[in-house]
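User: I'm putting together a teaching handout on how sequence relates to shape, and I'd like one worked example. Could you take Putative indole-3-acetic acid-amido synthetase GH3.9 from Tripterygium wilfordii, show the sequence you're using, and then write out its predicted structure as tokens right after it?

Assistant: Happy to. First the sequence, then the structure tokens directly below it.
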Amino acid sequence: MDGKKLEYKGEEALKEIENLTVNPAEVQESILKDILTRNSETEYLSKYLKGSKDVTEFKRHVPVITYKDIYPYIRRIANGEDSSLITGHPIVEMLCSSGTSGGEPKLMPSIAEDLDRRTFLYNLIMPIMNQYISGLDEGKAMQLYFVKAEMSTPCGLPARTVLTSYYKSKHFKCRTHDPFNDYTSPNQAILCNDSYQSMYCQLVSGLVHRQQVLRLGAVFASALLRSISFLERNWAKMCNDIRAGQLDSKITDPECRSCMSIMISSPDPSLADEIEEICSRSSWRGILCHLWPKAKYIEAVVTGSMGQYIPSLEYYSDGKLPLVSPMYASSECYFGVNLKPLCDPADVAFTLMPNMCYYEFLPLGENGTLLMQLDEEEEVPNDRLVDLVHVKVGSYYELVVTTYAGLHRYRIGDVLQVTGFHNRAPQFRFICRRNVVLSIDNDNTNEEDLHKSITVAKNRDGPDVTPMDAVAADDKTKSSSSRPRRDKRMATAKRGLRSLAVAVSIPLSMTFFDIYFSGSSEIYGARAKPFWFPPLWILNLSYLGSSFLMGLAAWLVWAEVVRNSNGTTISVLNLNHISRRCFKENGIKELHASAEQTMQSL
């Protein structure tokens, strides 16, 4: 990528967006030709192209793949083989995906210039925001950023998350001063590997600058809510630090202590009292607006699975701060930006920047109907893919990318819906991850249906209910398999037998107790009873009473075993049944009605 584009700010950045979206087909063709020129001699592409750099040959012969297809090459590179297995550039690190969608984290190859592309996309965010909110250069941003511990591959390549990679890069650490990105958090606090110390120092920094903060946020909504929860537990300590002008002794990281000692070098009891008065209120509704009264919006990803946190963020902001999802990115590649950042979270759509990678799309349904008929393991015919400029409004697609770092026609796993166009570049709404997030009785439920089902249940219980978490349980009365029921019967039977053993052991022990003191002198010899020991008839009555009660308890436990084995327990919300009916009969549009009908039948 042209290094000059990394310096684009303000109007220059907006002009670049217009230039890229006016003729995305031309940009995309140029990107693919450039990738093939660099990567055609790799071991992977040579199998299919025999050294050819022709775009038509690429589309005809290179297969559509998933992670399991590319993983053997990634493993070989991680073990020390040359990057030329898949890319013409040296691979400098492996990026770890979160693993939240498909289970195990994945390793994605990354080359040096990928950081340029990520920085380019980051630099577009504030020029877009400035079109809607003015004066953002007159204060600070309390953006809570965190790194995660990194590992190394057997050959010594760093293996870390894409965010950790960016925060540790010179692009972030050595960035020039930008009044639109003046963070309250010192770099030392952001880069601290200890999550407690990092969060503590960043929140103290945000509180110290509370009257200067113009925007709040974290990368993901979940991270921001964790920070609020952390503040709720530790605000008293933070007030003490500000009041005394001295950092808490639990903060032991030398760089954190060094930068924070400058920030709170002198006592500020009035500021501490202000914060204490706000945080000690009985309700934390609107706490973000009270602590940071000049904040104009919250920046965090609230699409996809993060959508479940919207009600909580609205509670803590009292609905007064817009929720902004600025960009769409993944470990594989950064993709696009939200050109209408103040839209409702449900209407967020991202414009894919055609210079980031080469995009193709696997059709999954049209006219508002999503069909998940194509399994991840199933081979995809090459002619089924659609180019960026040929997608249709209202249709659903799975994103397929070809990157400079060596992913060729790789299925990302994200399901997108086309909502419109900016110039000639399509805009997409993120629907869900294709990978399974919930599997009950061999029926799979994706994250959007799961979230919508919980929302339906919440609405059913009334407007004052705020969902904080959810648990899904299978309903065995609808199971076609007898194996889980047998397993359940065996487990509960074992519990019943243990209870029965306890019921028998107690009266038996009392019997031995009786024998010991009342005495069979032939066996035990004569023993003197202590003066406090009760008469024998009281012991016998105790024995009979306890035997009766324990026997009754054992019988009740066994009755519970039989009841459970007959499968009469009812789950609170049969999400499994809802999603099955939604996908196989009605499609996404009928989800709410299907959920409501199912719950009425419970």
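A couple of points you could highlight for students: The chain has three domains: 30-350, 436-475+572-601, 483-565. The radius of gyration is 31 Å.
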